[in-house]
Amino acid sequence: MNKRSIIIDTDPGIDDALAIAIALFNEELDVKLITTVAGNVGLNKVTYNTLCLLKYFGKENIPVAMGADRPLIREYEDASSVHGKSGMEGFDFEKPTQTAIKENAVDAMRSAIMESEEPITLVPIAPLTNIALLLKTYPEVKNNIKEIVLMGGSASRGNKGVMSEYNIGVDPEAAHIVFHSGVKLTMVGLDVGLKALVLPEDSEHIKGMNKTGKMAYCLFKKYRGGSFNTGLKMYDSTAIAYLLKPELFEAVETYLDVELHGSMTHGCTLVDLKGYLGKANNATVCLDINGDEFRKWFVDAIEKCI
Ligand code: BDR
Ligand code: CA
């Protein structure tokens, strides 16, 4: 089988940890590089967390490159209230031996994309700072990017602000650059993630399944993206699910933009379903997900891990 080459841009992050696990052990995906960006917690912490995960999964051969330590323009705001102080609270990881490569995330992405024989898919599951810097600094990479499938934004309301989702709301200027880059783009947003729930019975099931399930269970006990008892939101895994099983989603071709100047709505994604803005479509936006099928897929995907 021809594997699909991907780069994951991430800020682990408890839901990031699960998305990374699923991608690493899926036979259809080849994770070429993982890049880190300040998000859920600061850059050093998310990078350390990524290295911990790779050690835990026995995948220290996958390069990790550090990216931006703050948004393009705005003040950095973390999400440690959701993921804990370390960003992956709840599990004691062994100290990693691997270190991040010397190249920064933007240069490392450029090299991986330009050297790849087949076009690469970018999967950002964090603020879009690194991806925006890449597309602006090295626009030539666009020719060898298959598409960008990102977790972020919302076709309805927000979780950072009334109308802004965290990944987009933290760095809306970066999102603006990515949305207008001309690269094929799919947005799997917050409103979809709200329905991508892991229920307590799923957590109990995966707990004894394997190493990954054991880790997930401990992290889930501390995760504040939803509630352990009524359902935990697996936002970032929805981007991986879209790559592997798009039939789980209802999606539309539409015009997508982001509010930069609203005094109360900056970071809000505008999904112009009715064409009010009269602009050409520039994105595929997921509007719904089959939650029951997602849960089955998620549990099966964890079973494929070590
Ligand atoms: C997104 O924000 C982060 O807290 C999660 O890891 C996810 O990427 C959800 O809004
Ligand atoms: Ca994330």
From TrEMBL:
Keywords: Glycosidase, Hydrolase. Residues 6-295 form the Inosine/uridine-preferring nucleoside hydrolase domain. InterPro entries: Inosine/uridine_hydrolase_dom (IPR001910), IUNH (IPR023186), Ribo_hydro-like (IPR036452). One of its GO terms (biological process) is purine nucleoside catabolic process. Pfam families: IU_nuc_hydro (PF01156). Gene3D superfamilies: Ribonucleoside hydrolase-like. One of its GO terms (cellular component) is cytosol. This is Non-specific riboncleoside hydrolase. It comes from Clostridium uliginosum.
